[in-house]
Automatic annotation (TrEMBL):
Keywords, sorted A to Z: Amino-acid transport, ATP-binding, Nucleotide-binding, Transport
Domain ABC transporter: 2-233
Protein family per UniProt: Belongs to the ABC transporter superfamily.
Protein name in UniProt: ABC transporter ATP-binding protein
Keyword Glycoprotein among record annotations: no
């Protein structure tokens, strides 16, 4: 479904990834782990068309993405929840959701406002609150809800648990696990080792701008040497 080959991505003259390759198969969850600064977020930004400096190949269902503007990539069926969450602070929760549904939703799509509110009852209670009045956890829920309203075939998440209380992490985990059960393909960048390995079908570890380890969640849980070398777990 998503194939990345020999990706070089960066900012201006500075290259952050160096020949990175990875792929996400339909209905599977791929977790990308790695220390701060190895280029995980940069890789996601490259997929979404948000970087100027990109070389290599990125294909979605066989279609090349490089050079397409971000909104085109979104309409092809990739929803992206950035680390910064990027909700609109001046809009209410309802307005944030309606905007996403209007811009990118599909009339025949499975995800409706009602359905995302069933998934995140907390957001239903906060519908008329402004974006800035939300807790970090609520903002993350809103960011994921907004992404689902696009009815994506691939959901990309950048560190969804960052800065969240354990109880909120648990509820985000339950939601993502449910989505996985429904067969939604996901690409998950995450620092929380337990969270990532319990959701993923496959794991890749990034170091120095490329993939340095590939295997299953069970493999990496058992491989304390890899954890120590590349993750500092
Ligand atoms: N907008 C930017 N302009 C210039 N350099 C950047 C920019 N964003 C990130 N970088 C640099 O790119 C490198 C990789 O950053 P990236 O955010 O991809 O890492 P990461 O693996 O996602 O780690 P983190 O968990 O810290 O986000 C870092 O050295 C970072 O300083």
């Amino acid at each position: 479904m998503l194939e990345i080959e020999d990706l070089h991505a960066g900012y201006g003259e500075t290259w952050v990834t160096h020949g990175l390759s990875l792929s996400v198969a339909p209905g599977r969850v791929l977790a990308v782990l790695g220390r701060n600064g190895v280029g995980k977020s940069t890789t996601l930004k490259a997929i979404m068309g948000l970087l100027g400096s990109v070389r290599g190949t990125i294909r979605f269902d066989g279609r090349p993405l490089l050079g397409l503007p971000p909104y085109r990539i979104a309409t092809l069926g990739i929803a992206y929840v950035p680390e910064t969450r990027d909700i609109f602070p001046s809009l209410t929760v309802r307005e944030n959701l309606e905007l996403a549904a209007r811009r990118f939703g599909r009339p025949d799509g499975a995800w409706t406002l009602e359905r995302v509110l069933d998934l995140f009852p907390r957001l239903r209670e906060r519908l008329d609150n402004g974006g800035t009045q939300l807790s970090g956890g609520e903002q993350q829920m809103l960011a994921i809800a907004r992404a689902l309203l696009m009815n994506p075939r691939l959901l990309i998440l950048d560190e969804p648990t960052e800065g969240l209380a354990p109880i909120v992490v648990q509820s985000i985990h339950a939601v993502l696990d449910g989505l996985r059960g429904e067969g939604l393909s996901m690409l998950l960048v995450e620092q929380n080792f337990g969270f990532a390995t319990s959701l993923a079908d496959e794991v890749r570890v990034m170091g120095r701008g490329t993939v340095v380890w590939a295997g299953s969640p069970a493999d990496i849980r058992a491989d304390t040497a890899v954890q120590a070398q590349w993750l500092g777990v």
